[in-house]
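Data availability (excerpt). The following record was deposited with the supplementary files.
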Amino acid sequence: MIRRGYLDFGNGQLHYRYCGKESAPLLLMLHQTPSSSAMYLRLMPMLSENFFVVAVDTPGFGGSDPLAGDVTIEAFAAAIYQAVSAAFDQPALVFGHHTGAAIAVQLAYDQPEFVRALALSGPTLLTEAQKRALPSAARAFPIDDSGSHWQNMWQRLRGKDPEADLSLSVRETLLAFTCGDYYEASYRAVVEQDVVLQMAAINCPALVCAGGRDLLNSAVAPSVELLPQGRSAALPAEAGTYVCDRHPEAVADVLRQFFLEVAQTG
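Predicted structure:
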């Protein structure tokens, strides 16, 4: 069973989902923008036999309160670290997808004693063209009486994977409106992060992967080269940005093998 709760950070609360035995190795899961920990609902039970799985809503997303100050990847990581480390007295195996991968890198860079190992799906080692385009891809739509903003947001989120279940697109569209300005702000934060410097300084085991249709698939190989203990793994060729929703078995297999190896070697 997946349960839910809240953890404190600063002046706010972090909403999270969890399953498995708390005595097992802690596996922290970080979501993409503009989603929430709901994107891991299918994946979490598949890993709960081996890990204590904790999936948080990034501040300002899902059920979590926003940050008190500026929106940066560093601030996201600091809030999550404060909340999770205070509640669970053990280091973490950390998995992040897209924006969650950016936060995972920041966590490993800032808190090396906390992050035992790192797995990144769709790493945010962006090209200059991607950096220029990313914030505008999350720009808010003006609200009007006709409701055109709903249609525009639906088309944006549906366009990420037109073959996904309609319920998935509905969830993501609602979450995009729920996070408000944090949609665009988080993308700007990703662009501003010095991920090259951070990856090169991370010394824990690191696994990098992406679906074959993921727009960040091209960042896998250069990320592995940057990470001192980097390695890659394959995800389905037909998988895109919703790989954790649509191919949870494949993601679970990759994560289980990697993180169990880390846990067993200490």
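Summary of structural features: The chain has one domain: 3-126+193-265.
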